[in-house]
Amino acid sequence: RHTISVSAFLLNRSSDLKDQNLVVIGSVSAGAEVIADGNIHVYGSLRGRAIAGAKGHHKAQIYCQNLEAELVSINGNYWLSESMEQHWGSPVYIHLTDSELTSSKLI
Fold first, then answer.
1. Which of 23, 39, 86, 87 could form a disulfide with 5 if both were Cys (CB 3.0 to 4.6 A apart)?
2. What is the four-CA torsion angle of 42, 8, 49, 83, rounded to 10 degrees?
3. For position 11, what pLDDT does the model report?
4. Closest Cα partner for 21 from 50, 1, 51, 46?
5. Which whole-number Å values give the CA distances from 37 to 18, 51, 73, 89, 97, in the listed order?
6. What is this structure's pTM?
7. How many CB atoms lie within 10 A of CB 90?
8. Are 40 and 75 in contact (CB under 8 A)?
9. Could you say which DSSP state residue 53 is in?
10. 3-class SS at 85?
């Protein structure tokens, strides 16, 4: 997989990367959506939607410095914001364990 790096805030737009990982150096605003077939790294706040493993990559992961997302999804498994209360506002990584999303604090 290739990796694409974006050095900007993503405001109300969609960024869709086929067969690639995505690194966002900045924040993903509420209403914005990032989609990657591989992993998603957000070095800032994740307030919009992040969809990793879009083409069935079950080992994809989502990393962010501040979790305040509307939705996160890996390989079709998703959480809405109310499912993320445990790590809300924290740096986390999200991955699949036995076809279920799990999250862990980064720090």
1. 23
2. 40
3. 46
4. 1
5. 6, 8, 11, 25, 18
6. 0.87
7. 17
8. no
9. S
10. helix
